[in-house]
Design a protein that fits this description.
The complex is a heterodimer of chains A (503) and B (375). The longest helix of chain A is centred in the middle third of the chain and has 16 residues. With 503 residues, chain A is α/β, with parallel strands linked by helices. In chain A, α13 crosses α14. Chain A is built from 17 helices and 22 strands. In chain B, 45% of the residues are buried. Chains A and B meet through β1, β2, α1, α10 and α11 of A and α9, α10, α16 and α17 of B.
Chain lengths: 503, 375
């Protein structure tokens, strides 16, 4: 089999940092090649070098057995390399067709030849089973569909080697299935796919070959048949991993948060939460399982004070806080790890240190008086979070949009953990972060629990839920349909409750 | 600040001004004037002490207007109602100031300023109130409130409250001398020479104080943090406990208070009465000041002085018959246009560099700390 991409001895230095350290990568033509590694292992830098976005300091790039040096993505595209970035680059108010041809329009005279474009796209779509309505405005489409547009975009530009940067990070399980189906069809047509991922079960399911990066080095090249997920995780992290299991019981008689018969009706008049009630004691982790969109988001927003209640009451440490503002609740100790860190959790253009006090900006430890923010104390706090939670950032003045997704998540989690919140509402706290950091977050949650934290944990990762929780609630259509003992339930049974198959 | 830091802050506006000079030269050539002569004349006239003082007098209200706009802009409110707010404020302040007769000077001035700020606050607050209760976009409400203030309230009341005078101007009564703001000429003359015809407005000190307060409140205070957080991400700010509606109203009120002061340099330092000839357009000019100054206290000051100087110094073009002074309007427009482009490009580059540096961050955070300490 011929070799599609051969990178040899790629080294890339940034001021004070060795991002890629003599990395070797061999991708055979027509295979699906996964690149795994922790956040900051150098995966993205390596792909940017291959795609011509950054020049390597040392090392050689061979594409289809020809040595190449790229000074821009344009040159990489010319030899048949295409890349789909983690964050899509699409114009929302243009149609699918317009987005795909944007920048590479076929023309007739000075006009865009839409007819030719349309027929070429139909051919592409048919050939790879990529179904799309060309005249839909992109803004109206689901994430999975947008991703398909990005893939068609690079195919349209003649790509034979596709680089996908964490393609599954933004998808729900059904969409992942669909993506994998598309990837297999592309492979069947002779395309080569390089994809970055750190969800190990996915990697094992789809990849033909796996290259593992750690600390900027390539540490292994393996076939999925020869390794288990545990092996891969250890290769990535370099040590044995703990599991999410919680051991001794630390539940106290103090109630951290209690929710009594709350209901929420949304703006359209649809009931989102119906008569939900439970309590979380200090030292207890209550897990909420459920297929996304069954009221978990509304539950979190109701406790936080953003979603207005149509009935019921909410209590923090024994106080009825139903009429309190978000700020009063946060000052009472309520911590929050949002489901969508970009929307609810971070100020992307603001520096790390400002983000490290977000949600706690009224605490006296971050203020030098009633009026002024204590910048020094805040920066010390930020450095502390960065260090304790291994947030990889050049410094506390770096704007947060420059951090990778996993490091942003670690910043959000670290911020809430380092400010001694109680209770803490955590929605998908380990989403998007690598296995090593995931274990560290679990460890931190367990330690905080032992110290008396009451945690409401919402997660899509059933192992995480079962492993960490003292009590498990299952939500379905805005109601709590089951209360389970995590010690006695299997993921399979849990799944049955979540879909309503078990009564 | 490091050298690159300085270059990044100063580079884009300087590039914009340079390009604007080029475009202006082209326009001059096309209109048949010699750009070197014209620029020479502007420079020669503009470097006179009197012109410089006039420039600062002009820059003072421009700066206040820019800050008023910037306050709201820091939380993504496009408050274009400064125009109506300052005219309405100046009108009522002039009416009250003239009505109270002679008073102990600091008290008289305080009454006038308080009136102006209250009117500015009320008018801006109206737009804020409409936004939080009725979800009316602030651009729509402030545009309408501008029209209502200038064409409605002021015109109507001016007709009723005007005084008889020998001039053809429709005007209110004079503010007694106890309500005049002192000029800074004696102080300037200590270090320069005798100043003819013009007086440097003492209100420039008030503007400077407002600038300092703006900087501190926005960048250092809790309120400023909440405001900027809302500007950067209203959803995250809300989840962090910032009350969204109260913050919107508060930003509008602060902005309105500063807007109320915009006309005070002219009212207290120069004209001492309100008339149909009271300066207009300062509110919109302030948007350009904030834009060029990037909503920064010092940046806006530089922009205000630059625009003030261009406007005053260009008067010479017409006097000498070199070219129409509209050439300066073209230059101001081009400066703004190029500044916006230059900022966008600079920001894009910074983002790319920051992302590259952060994605390269593979070693331990302890080393990152050390690096941090170096810079």
């Amino acid at each position: 089999m011929s070799v599609a991409v051969r990178l040899q001895g790629i080294t890339k230095r940034f001021p004070g940092v060795l991002a890629n350290d003599r990395i070797d990568l061999v991708v055979e033509a027509g295979e699906i090649h996964a690149i795994c590694g922790e956040n900051g292992a150098g995966k993205s830098t390596l792909m940017k070098i291959l795609y011509g976005m950054q020049p390597p300091d040392e090392g050689s790039i061979e594409v289809l057995e020809q040595e190449r040096t790229f000074s821009s993505p344009r040159e990489a595209i010319d030899v048949g390399i295409g890349m789909v970035h983690q964050h899509f680059m699409l114009a929302d108010n243009l149609t699918v067709l317009e987005n795909v041809i944007l920048g590479a329009e076929p023309s007739r005279g000075s006009l865009i030849d839409f007819a030719t474009a349309r027929s070429r796209l139909r051919e592409l779509g048919d050939a790879y089973g990529l179904e799309l309505d060309l005249d839909d405005a992109v803004g109206t489409l689901e994430v999975g569909e947008r991703q398909r547009i990005e893939i068609i975009k690079i195919l349209y530009r003649g790509a034979r080697i596709l680089i996908l940067d964490e393609p599954t990070a933004v998808l729900v399980p059904q969409e992942v299935e669909e993506l994998f189906r598309n990837m297999r069809e592309l492979k069947a047509e002779g395309h080569t796919i390089i994809f970055i991922d750190h969800k190990l079960d996915e990697v094992l399911a789809i990849a033909d070959t796996i290259t593992v990066l750690r600390q900027g080095r390539s540490v292994a090249r393996v076939k999925p048949a020869d390794v288990t997920a545990q092996d891969l995780a250890e290769l990535m992290v370099g040590s044995e991993l703990p599991t999410p299991e919680t051991r001794e019981v630390t539940i106290t008689d103090r109630t951290a948060v209690e929710v009594k018969g709350i209901s929420v009706v949304d703006e359209a008049g649809v009931t989102r939460l119906r008569d939900v009630g439970f309590s979380v004691q200090c030292g207890e982790i209550v897990g909420v399982a459920g297929v996304e969109g069954n009221g978990q988001g509304e539950l979190v927003e109701a406790i936080l004070g953003i979603a207005p209640l149509t009935g019921g009451s909410i209590h923090l440490h024994g106080d009825d806080v139903t009429g309190w503002s978000v700020r009063q609740r946060r000052e009472a100790g309520l911590g929050y790890i949002p489901e969508d860190r970009h929307r609810r959790g971070l100020l992307l253009p603001a520096p790390v240190w400002e983000n490290s006090i977000l949600g706690h900006q009224t605490r006296t430890r971050f203020l030098s008086s009633r009026v002024w923010i204590d910048e020094d104390a805040s920066k010390d706090h930020a450095s502390n979070v960065v260090e304790r939670f291994d947030v990889r950032t050049p410094g506390v003045h770096t704007p947060v949009h420059a951090l990778s997704g996993g490091n942003q998540q670690k910043l959000v989690v670290g911020r809430e953990m380092a400010t001694d919140c109680n209770p803490l509402i955590a929605a998908h706290p380990t989403r998007g972060i690598d296995v090593g950091s995931q274990a560290a977050v679990w460890e931190d949650l367990r330690r905080a629990r032992a110290e008396g934290l009451g945690l409401l944990l919402i997660s899509a990762d059933l192992e995480e839920l079962i492993g960490l929780s003292d009590t498990l609630l299952v939500m379905l259509r805005g109601e709590i349909v089951a209360r389970l003992d995590p010690a006695r339930v299997t993921p399979r049974e849990l799944g049955a409750y979540m879909t309503g198959a078990a009564a | 600040m490091t050298w690159t830091g300085v270059r990044r802050v100063v580079g884009p506006p300087l590039a914009a001004v340079g390009l604007a000079l080029l475009v202006a030269a082209l326009v001059l050539v096309v209109s048949g004037a010699d750009p070197i002569v014209a620029f020479g004349n502007i420079w020669e006239y503009g470097s006179r002490l009197e012109t410089v003082i006039e420039s600062f007098n002009r820059a003072t209200p421009l700066y206040l207007s820019g800050i008023a706009f910037a306050i709201a802009m820091r939380m993504n409110l496009f408050q274009i109602g400064v125009e109506g707010q300052y005219i309405l404020a100046a009108f009522f302040a002039a009416y009250v100031g003239a009505g109270v007769g002679s008073l102990f000077p600091p008290l008289h001035i305080a009454i006038i300023l308080a009136t102006a700020m209250i009117v500015g606050v009320a008018w801006a607050g109206l737009a804020g109130w409409m936004k939080v209760t009725r979800n009316v976009h602030e651009v729509i409400s402030t545009i309408m409130l501008n029209a209502i203030a200038v064409a409605g309230v002021v015109s109507f009341l001016l007709g009723r409250w005007k005084i008889e005078s020998e001039s053809l101007d429709t005007r209110l009564g004079d503010i007694a001398t106890t309500g005049w703001f002192p000029s800074l000429n004696p102080i300037v003359e200590l270090v320069t020479r005798e100043i003819k015809r013009v007086e440097l407005t003492g209100f420039i000190l008030v503007a400077a104080l407002v600038g300092v307060a703006y900087h501190l409140i926005i960048n250092r205070s809790r309120l400023g943090y909440d405001l900027r957080a809302t500007g950067a991400n209203p959803w995250a700010a809300e989840a962090s406990g910032v009350p969204p509606k109260r913050t919107i109203v508060l930003a509008m009120l602060l902005s309105g208070a500063v807007a109320g002061l915009v006309g005070m340099a002219d009212l207290l330092g120069d004209q001492h009465f309100y008339s149909l000839r009271f300066p207009q357009g300062l509110g919109f000019a302030g948007i350009a000041v904030a834009l060029l100054g990037r909503n920064h206290a010092v940046g806006a000051a530089v922009a205000a002085v630059a625009f003030g100087w261009l406007e005053r110094a260009s008067g010479v073009l017409e006097v000498r018959g070199d070219a129409p002074r509209e050439i300066v309007t073209i230059m101001v427009g081009v400066i703004i246009l190029f500044a916006v482009i230059a900022y966008a490009l600079a920001q894009r580059r910074r983002r790319i560099e920051a992302a590259a540096a952060a994605s390269a961050q593979v070693e331990s955070p302890a080393t990152a700390e050390a690096e941090e300490a170096d810079t």
